[in-house]
Structures are given as structure tokens and as C-alpha cells.
Amino acid sequence: MPEDYSNIYKIARRAAGFTQESAAEQLEISVDSVRAYETYQRTPPNEIVERMVICFHAPQLAYQHLHETTGLVSRIIPQLEQRSILEVAIRIYNRMRNFSQDSCLERLMAIAEDGRIDDTERPEFDEIIEELRSIIQSGLELEIFCSPDQSAKKERPEAATSRRSVQGLASENDCKSILAQPGRNASPSFNREGVTRP
Q1: Is the pTM above the cut of 0.85?
Q2: Which one of 32, 45, 92, 196 is least enclosed by Cβ atoms within 10 Å?
Q3: Could you give the residue ranges of the DSSP H alpha helices within the chain?
């Protein structure tokens, strides 16, 4: 069976330097569960994905998981693309400048003045919403794909690092202490229900 290079859970685990065995130990699940998630035999519940996000220092995994498993997400969160920090910064600057130059905020205030959106105002309101969605999209791309996790950055091994030191990245103090603290949530927070694939 050919190896699946598109599995989001496998990509995040490997990028963090974990073997399936070390990931299972840190996530406090079985190796069989890790394998099932990485072959799309089962979809991990949100609680497990939350642990992966923390342990693998992979905020993008939260977005990818929700996008793949919850159709409603695409209606609320714009489609995100991984871009360089320079590209995202330029996009944010250009979109905010255009929003300001097109007097979008003033137009929105004029529409909102009477507390309702009538049929004649709807097309203009929809245009303003599209402009805002593009700004939100770029802001999320900056946060999810460009914001470095300082602890991960300090501990990220070099490419030629030995397996032992790579596994040290996931020390018990690193992940289990986070997971063992009740009430501490990764951002974004998930509900505790699992999603299964047919």
C-alpha cells in the first residue's frame, strides 16, 4: 500500500520529530490509534487533535482538522493558504489600505444608521463583507501559518539531529504537563465530540 503523504496528522507529527510510538505515548493513546488516524481509517476526536496541536506545536492542524471534518467551518472561516510572512503582511497592508480608501467603514455606518439592511443596501453591504473577509483571511493566515511557537522554535532540532534528541523534543515536561492541567485549553478550543468518516 503506497504511503499517504497528504495526511494532516502524519505531516504534523513528522514535522515535530515524533515517531508514531513517541506520539502515542505523549498523546496518551495507543499506537494503533495513531496509525488509524494517519491512514484515515478513523478521524481523531477534537480532544485528541487539541493534544496534537499542543504537543506538535502545530496551530495549523486545528484549522486543517476542522476544515476536513466540519462542513460548516468553510461557511464561517475563509479558505486559508500557507504564505510567507512577507506575503501575508503585504496582503494585510493592501487590503486594509483599500478598505480605508474605499470608505468601507463610512459606507457601513451609513447602511447601519437605521438599524437594518434593506434590499437596496444589500449589494453594497455584501461587498463590504467580502472586503472584511479578505482582511480576516489574511489575519488568520498570519496567526496560523506565520506566528512562531517560541518553545518550538527554541527546541526544534536541526535536520541531521539524532532520533534520540528529536524524541527529546516531546519530553514529558513538554506535553504531559500541559495536558495534565485541567482547564487549560489550546487556542482554538474544541468541543469533545469525535467525528468519524464513512
Answers
A1: no
A2: 196
A3: 8-15, 20-27, 31-38, 46-55, 59-69, 73-76, 85-101, 104-112, 122-141, 150-155, 163-168, 172-179
Average pLDDT score, the chain: 78
Residue 160 pLDDT greater than 70, yes or no: no
Cell of 194: 469525535
Return all residues near 143 (Cβ < 8 A) that are at least 6 apart: 59
Q: How far apart are CA 82 and CA 151, in angstroms?
A: 21
Lowest mean pLDDT among 17-26, 132-141, 154-163: 154-163
Bond preceding residue 182 cis, omega within 30 of 0: no
The C-alpha cell 476542522 sits at 66
By mean pLDDT, which of 8-17, 30-39, 164-173 is the weakest? 164-173
DSSP code, position 149 = -
